[in-house]
Write a structure and sequence with these properties.
Blueprint (H helix, E strand, L loop, with lengths): L1 H6 L4 E3 L9 H14 L5 E12 L2 E5 L9 H11 L8 E3 H13 L7 H12 L1 E13 L10 H10 L13
Parallel strand pairs: 2-5
Antiparallel strand pairs: 1-4, 2-3, 2-4
Helix pairs in contact: 3-5, 4-5
């Protein structure tokens, strides 16, 4: 991932997964917020609301205090939601670069390091909440019997033993 971040030209990076969606209006709103707040060094990210799709229905979610100057309030807001949707926000490239270098320096490779990276990014500064939907997260493929099939397929390609999946509980 560090090669992708270094190849990026902008000040902010926005990640998207292959099974999720962002509308043109969402991207435009994120870009407008970056233009408006990007020079404020206390701002490390731009976020909004997330449409969380499951087989049981849809839910609009967001973080309430991520724009707070208090790191404690930002972290409490993150944990209160219970999902790592904030990973799919526009984040300052320098912040992601440093976090990726840190992850690369670890002696072990764990899955779900994105959770730790999101917490560390929130500790680094505020996220501007644009108060509109920016991302549609499709969780339907992770439910039921398919829950870990995507992870298992990735592990097989990467030559990682399936038992590594159970290290998730460490985080």
């Amino acid at each position: 991932m560090i090669a992708l971040i270094e190849a990026a030209r902008g000040d902010f990076i926005f990640f998207s997964a292959d099974d999720d969606l962002c509308s043109r209006q969402s991207i435009e709103a994120v870009l407008a917020a970056i233009k408006r707040f990007g020079s404020d060094e206390s701002v490390v990210g731009v976020t909004g609301h997330y449409l969380f799709e499951t087989t049981a229905g849809s839910q609009l979610m967001g973080y309430s205090q991520v724009d707070s100057p208090s790191p404690t309030e930002r972290i409490n807001s993150y944990f209160a939601l219970g999902l790592n949707l904030i990973y799919y926000s526009a984040v300052r490239r320098t912040v992601w670069s440093e976090l990726c270098r840190w992850v690369g320096s670890l002696p072990l490779r764990f899955t779900y390091l994105d959770l730790i990276m999101a917490v560390m990014a929130l500790l680094s500064g505020r996220y501007i909440d644009i108060k509109r939907m920016i991302y549609i997260y499709d969780f339907t493929g992770w439910e039921g019997g398919l829950k870990f099939e995507k992870d298992y397929a990735l592990y097989e390609v990467a030559g990682i033993d399936r038992s590594a999946l159970w290290l998730h509980g460490l985080f």
